[in-house]
């Protein structure tokens, strides 16, 4: 019977697949259902994980002119349930799945995505099919969500960079839908009704206006059959007329804005071809060439003419944005940076770009497409980008377009684009913070009725999927070596792409290893690694990387991404930079002045003063973690100080190197040993872990930030739990009840869902070898800070006084157990977790070890851990922004 069902499913899938390859093992299957839904399924066996992305071809382009945030508001309301699935059920289902469940609204589309273990694919599809069928939008529910979305608006409006971006859009795309961001405004949301949101959903959220992308460890043909069963009977609807785009000539304008950053920024922006233009690949390559580390914009930072320089591109379907950036120290004149940037862009327009940079940019862009395969979520994003934004059949089509770009085409585009008469320029100038001080209590106490703390009855199809918890399996089988010089090497072979990624670090702690009066030495040293090796200067070194399409960084933390065929060459270059850095004297003088300029702004910035105030309240006055650089300490450094610090701190027996990708472990060891084997350590290994600290006292702090309209709030305390303490498992499990699982967490439900006080709220335990810290953070309008803080305390006290409900405990365990396969779904996450475990001296399967603990924990275990280790009355509350 099973064979017959399997044959029937395969037969249905073949009918659906249309143009899909006929072979059963084809990695890609496509279909267009009778109702118009386009589906692409891509097999990626990196991990037992799947990403689903439902892309509705409606974003801020399609909204009414007076209501710019309508699409964004509908995105929010899609998480409040609909016919057949209540808000609480949706939240509980998403939480149980353990991965990412979110959405994003752009100008041209709104995307809803799951990243979840492959075992939950059926649940993800069922949820999205129900949401496509309809949406319930009551005025009461919209009123609650409006409070949260307005907090998101406040957060973004507190960012000077976002203010610049919004004004730039209005100038560059005046008279078109691109003239505003998809975010929306508080005024427009106040005028928006639930009926308007329902109308937008019913007009645009239809299968014939959607593209479903599924990527992961799935059978493409069988998955198409599942999609047909879930979505096939969703009716199609006629679509309204789409807006038209008539771009007028951009008029030159200069915007001047204050910023709370510790440094200033100069932006010069131009309109470029859009993602669906025939010239888009040319624009992509041009941006890569201008942003190259061998190009003149980046060279501004290497020559002391700016702190940093570069070029970036953002592409919307109908038009794009080219953005040159230069960074200058606080207190200095931005005009020399602006003039240098203008000269560079003028030269690009008149004389063209270096052909070698164009060719290097093409190779890099193609290599980056290949590395998208190194992440299940990244590959899904690449397919959605190609299909939705670029109007292509696949990411490979963009590869072909890039290959066809010529230097002449790039030069022609530069000449047509970089006309100063059509440039929008912005200068963001740092401003000082007001004087921080201790608060006297932030407003009067408020109370809000929270949602009932009762189990959510899931639909049968979901309840069955989450009823049983099993110990997760791991796809990782890393091979670990310790070289004779003490260097730890870990290799995890993967074959999903023809690339290799390397991540590594030298365990250091400048607060414990730099000499008194030499604060900032590590930052100066890190900057000097950019100047190549003793064998190859900066330009030669970058040229060697470009020749093999590699990306590399060196320093205390280092990395390499390289095509597998050039693995040995890439490792040789990485080792050359890491073990034999050039450290030229002129680079020391340059980095010293740059770091002094950075710190001159840093020590006066609201962000730094807020952070410093928090740490001073948490830690003893003499604690090494309170050390920080100043302009004076940096300028007091000598060249020999930097060289001595490098010689003392960089040692192989404090270094771990993780390799993930298409490589044989034995081959990898041979290559690494040849490149790094001659590295020697001198003297005993240093202690780089901070010492234990006593419990802190409760304090309330406020750091003024005139550029913010919303307060950033952190509630933190020292706890007596460290990273190897068994009590951490119960605390982590409880933290998933409090702060994990999207809407289903207590903090999210009480602070956002029920009261609309915040947009996001996060809680985390940061546990080191000898000390630990617990932090809850959120953003809120000044008048809502105390109410949000009161709810945090209420929820924590409830964790201490009552055992969590069985359903909450089951969900929290499911989140943590599912996190094991999810952590293996990209090369980066694999490398990061293996590196972390190795540096902590933990087994490389620590995720499985932790999962066993979580399975055995009980509700009383969690209650006792919170009662013993968390002190609700002892938080340091640090507020940055307007006075609460």
TrEMBL record:
It holds the Pfam family Peptidase_M16_C. Residues 38-177 form the Peptidase M16 N-terminal domain. SUPFAM superfamilies: LuxS/MPP-like metallohydrolase (SSF63411). Residues 430-454 are annotated as: Disordered. Transmembrane segments: none annotated. Keywords: Signal. The keyword Signal applies. Residues 1-23 form the signal peptide. Residues 193-364, 637-814 form the Peptidase M16 C-terminal domain. Belongs to the peptidase M16 family. This is M16 family metallopeptidase. The lineage of its organism: Bacteria, Pseudomonadati, Pseudomonadota, Gammaproteobacteria, Lysobacterales.
